[in-house]
Structures are given as C-alpha cells and as structure tokens.
Design goal:
Chains A, B: It catalyses: D-fructose + ATP = D-fructose 6-phosphate + ADP + H(+). 2 copies of one chain form a homodimer. Chain A contains 10 helices and 10 strands. Chain A is α/β, with parallel strands linked by helices and about 290 residues long. In chain A, helix 6 crosses helix 7.
Chain lengths: ~290, ~290
C-alpha cells in the first residue's frame, strides 16, 4: 500500500492506493490552518501501513535538494502556509520515504503511469484554471532544474482583438495573465462557464494556449500534451486550440505525434483523480531524493 | 581514445580525444558531397583505434530511436545530404558505438561535462548565428521527446521599434526570424559585426533573446544558460540580454542561479572547441541508444 496526498490551496485530497494505480479509499479535507489540516490528514492515514507517501502540492515549493528549506511551501499568499515545512512534517510523522513534487508535475507523472500518456515516454500536463501551471516528463523523468518549472508565466503575443490588461501581478500580460480563468472573467465580465461557445473570448483563449503549446513542443518536444483544469472543462476549446496550434507551427515539426493533433493535444484521462493518482504514482515510482542525498 | 565529429553544413571538424576531454589531434574538412566528405573523414580516423564515436550534427536529423530512418539527415536545404544515412554509414564503417545528437545538444553536453556548466546539473546552450538553435541538459541528461528540440522557432513578442518582416521561411517573425544573424542584417542593412555597439538593433536583439531565455527558464528551469554562435561574439550584447531578462522576469523566480544573472547567462567556455568537445563528451558518456534498442 502507498499513500497519496493532492495538497491544494483549498483542499487536501488523501488516498490509499495500490501499485496498479487503484485508489482503495480517499477523502477530501479543507485546507485551513496547517495544524488543523495536518491533524486531519494524520487521522485519515492512522493505522494504515504505507510503504511510501507521494505528495503533489500547491506552491511555490522549494524543491532544491541541496536547500536547507527543501520541501517548504515558500511565498504563498496563503499566509499561514508560507514557509511551512511540509516535507519534514510528513517525513517525521510517517517515517517512510516522502516523494514531494508540484501538483502539476504529479499530474503529469500520473498521466504517464496510469493515464493518457501511458503509451509514450514524454508528456506535458498543463492546467488552466485559477492559475496556469504545467509539469513535464521527459524520458520517464520529471523535469527539474533549478527548481520546478513555472510554465504559466511564459510570454505570449497579444491577440489583435484583445485589449485587456492581463491579471498577473508579476508580468501583467504573460500567459497566466491573459488566459487563466480570472483573465477570461476580466476580459469578458463573466466567468468562462457562463460564456457562449461562440464568444470571441474562446478564440483569444485558444490563440494564447496554442502559442504556449507551440513553445512547449519546440522547447521540450513532448510526445503528448494534456490540458486539464477548470477552463478546459469547456471541451469546445480543444478543437480551437488544436487548429491554432497547427496554424502557428505551420508544418515545422512533422512526425507521428504532432501530425495527429487530435491525439497530440488531449484532455486528461484520469479526470478528477489526476492529482491523487499522480501523487500515488510518485509514491510508487520515485525515490525520496532529499532523503537519499542527506 | 574516442572519436568526435562536429558535423556542420559548411565543415566537418573531426577529432581524437581522451576521457579527460583533451583533444589529441583534429582537422577540419569542408562539407561537399557526402561521398567526398565521408571519404576524407574516414581517412582522418584511419589507423586509430577508437572505443566510440560521438557526433554533433547539423539537421534536421531523425533521432527517434524507433524510426526506420534513425540517424538520417532529413529535410536539409543542402540537397545532397537530404535523407543521408549518417548514423548507418558511420556505424558500418567504424563498427563501434556511434552516439549521434544535434550540434547544439552536443555543445550543451560538452559544456556540462568539460566547460562552463561543470558545476551544475542542468543547462541550456543556445547558438545565435545563421540560425538559432538550442540544446538542453536536465539532471545530466539531454532532452529528447518526440525528436530534438527546435527552440529557435519559438514565438516572441514584437519589439515596439521593430518593423522588419522576419526572415524565417516557416514562421516569418519567430525568434530565428527576428534575432538570427540574417535577421539583424535584414533589419539594419549590414552584417551585425559592422554595426556600432550603440545601434538600436542591439537593444532589439537583446529583447528577443531575453524573451527566449525567460521562456527557457520558466519551462525547463536550467541552472545555467550559455549563449554561443557568431552573433554572441559581440560581447557587448551580454549585459543587454541580462538586463532585459531581469526586467521581464520581474523577480518571479528567485534563487541562487537566477539571482546572479552574470553567472546565469554566460558565453561558452569551450570557445571554438565547444562543438568538437561536445561530440567527444557524447562518445565518452552516452550510450548508442539506437544500437541498444535494436
């Protein structure tokens, strides 16, 4: 048995699962104070014998194995969690390997092991919701360099019909600033799910997402791109994104993956369990890097 | 002893080197017809006993290990080399493992093993010259997904003072279309090395390069970025690129790497030997993936 936690800013989803990827039981705990939330997490796992614990967490989180604050939540606006030693707290409570990564890296890894990227060796998982984030798996390994990727903040070109300001507090009109849920609402005055499918906002949205996917395809060359998150529950956006992606790339990359754009840019197959199964996959397949290096 | 070939569109640099990275002897052969060029390469290596051969090649090149045309140069405008079976030709002649990668992946790997990225575990190497290309090493491994990255063609935002068309035959005003050597010449009417340091073209150039580096930093989070190629021999461009990079990122990533931008964005330390030493590093440290999988 393995433990899994999808640690989010509004809720913590906890589960016990098996090597096959099957979740045996799970629960959802609201994210309040660290003390209260962690106590309820420990309660869920009480009496269970787990070999390892996988955690896909909200962030930003320090994932530099050489850092003294490895596994700390860092500068989150959720002030009670700022600088919280998540890794150490879990590690000292459970006494088993704890494999910590970002929520999106977890989701990317889960789709690779149990979901829509099982048949390939590289993928990008991008979530488009309140924020935009993405994780990448290359040759079966999660991409980490100086920390975790922050793909939501890449620069995109303005769509000619878009005169909104962009909502990113750091960059204004970066990808997240122009294409996240709040950006859609800022532009159109209503939440995305209330907008008609024919609203021009969706063409603008597809244009920005396609620019990001083109850059991902050129920079890390994933064999599949999975788009999840609240905004992507609007299934009608997928064909628009695929069309814009093909148009922008203009035949520059041609291979069995990109040529079949319907299977190249896809929704998650793990659905609402993507995060939890991703954390489970971390527990099963990854090493506790920090522990090993100490 | 190991063999190394930096296979370029205008010349082939061949070398014999040691595990330490030292090149014992080397030569440069003009790239003419495949028959003539390969005969001269074989002549250079005649009588040498090499354990493996590393090759950093121009492209595009098929690097999909499952492809029937693995190691073929594909759609190059150098028509005599189009569809040339480079890997097979070398493999059958030398009978040793042949490790083939792109020139920029080779250079990135060489800087990682013998050069300016020896002290870190991830880097991007970008060359800015007749074209723009980049290679990436993450956790010591070269990034390959559905093929090799084609980072030169990512999308950038127009600099407000730039009304040039962009020279990329595929995308017009992608990064390569706006920031390669020919793009500089198309914009200013003269070759870059003839332009004064104070010419506004350099501010435009730095802006585009900084956008690309920001996207690399956010997408693959390398611990160091190395900029080589003919255009980057203009050393005065480096401070401009660093300044623009910091300004655009606006403090969003803060860590020991990015905070010290003078050591984050740097010239190659292997100089004119970057390509050859990169090929040597491939021979020493990498496996012949294609051979192993057959």
């Amino acid at each position: 048995m393995f433990g899994a936690i999808e640690a989010g800013g509004t809720k913590m989803v906890c589960g016990i699962g098996m090597e096959t990827g099957e979740i045996i039981r799970h629960t959802s705990i609201p994210t309040t104070t660290p003390e209260e939330t962690m106590a309820r997490i420990f309660e869920f796992f009480a009496g269970e014998s787990i070999e390892a614990l996988g955690v896909g967490t909200f962030g930003p989180v320090d994932l530099d194995p050489d850092s003294d604050t490895y596994g700390h939540i860092t500068t989150t606006p959720k002030v009670r969690w700022a600088n919280y030693p998540l890794y150490e707290t879990l590690k000292s409570h459970f006494g088993v390997p704890v494999i910590l990564d970002t929520d999106v890296n977890g989701a990317a890894f889960g789709e690779m092991k149990f979901g829509g990227a099982k048949d390939v060796s590289s993928c990008v998982y991008m979530t488009v919701g309140t924020g935009i984030g993405a994780g990448a798996v290359i040759d079966g390994e999660l991409v980490h360099g100086m920390g975790h990727p922050e793909m939501g903040h890449i620069l995109v070109r303005r769509h000619p019909s878009d005169d909104s300001n962009g909502v990113c507090p750091y960059h204004g009109d970066c990808l997240e600033g122009l294409a996240s849920g709040p950006a859609i609402e800022a532009r159109s005055g209503v939440k995305g799910h209330l907008l008609d499918e024919t609203d021009e906002t969706w063409d603008i949205e597809a244009d920005y997402l396609a620019q990001a996917l083109m850059n991902f395809a050129l920079i890390i060359a994933p064999q599949r791109i999975i788009l999840g998150g609240g905004v992507m529950k609007q299934q009608h956006v997928f064909p628009k994104v695929r069309e814009a992606f093909k148009e922008k790339l203009n035949g520059y990359i041609q291979n069995q993956y990109v040529d079949n754009v319907e299977t190249y840019i896809v929704p998650p197959t793990l659905g609402d369990f993507a995060g939890l199964k991703g954390a489970l996959a971390l527990a099963i397949y990854k090493e506790d890097i920090h522990h090993a290096r100490r």
